[in-house]
Amino acid sequence: MVAVLDFIRESAVGDLVAWQHQLEAARRFSLSPALVEGIILDNGLLPARYQRNRQTISQSGQRELFHSRVAVIGCGGLGGYIIEELARLGVGTIVAIDPDLFEEHNLNRQLFSTPANLGKYKVEAALRRVLDINPAVTLIARQTAFSAENGAELLTGSNVAVDALDSIGVRIELADACSALGIPLVHGAIAGWFGHVTTQFPGDDTLQRIYGPEKSCKGVETSLGNPSFTPAVVASLQVAEVCKLLLGQGTPLCGRQLAIDLFSMEISVIEMNDSDRETG
What we know:
11 helices, Rossmann fold
């Protein structure tokens, strides 16, 4: 690895390593772009693609993101935007979990849904998209439905899980699985002009408090529908929560529900319990 590091250091401008030099190092030394990115970050340098992150995320923080693993359950309206933003942020490993194929009604709002992708699996589209936008990120595509039975196998090893589901019952199963594994869960839901976001830490019962005993139905989006903008807004808020959790910075939405009303352009915070934790 000494030769690789020498090449990277010689190619750097200040502490920035251009993508073309990252690719050349991968080609010259028969390494993956991900391995080269790890070498860059582990030696105090920064891939140039992240230079606009650095006023918000330090070089060491960028390294932490690269060595993190995030599970995204659902690759539709919320999940597509979440995966896109996590990959652009530089999260090193993303586990994308979804059993579904794209259908025509997905075209109005799902980022990876295109006419060419109709009838194709959502996780496969997610994999292709991540390879296009950031080949240094590893996306693990799991073409399966999340359940209480396979939850531990799907989530083990992840630092954070992100809920992009549309079923209340499966959301509760996801929350239970995360608690059992000691993984924080960033939950988001959308319907029409409205959405909400919260973070549930292991041992909390935030989702149960939001949804109550009803576990068999889908959310209110079945009656209100979803336009193109609502999933983009809520997914971005979820990714911001994930970033804070991975970096151990800021105040997460633990014990609080952020309610978004895009029709009235109002955002409110609902206190769910007495928890008021900070990650840092």
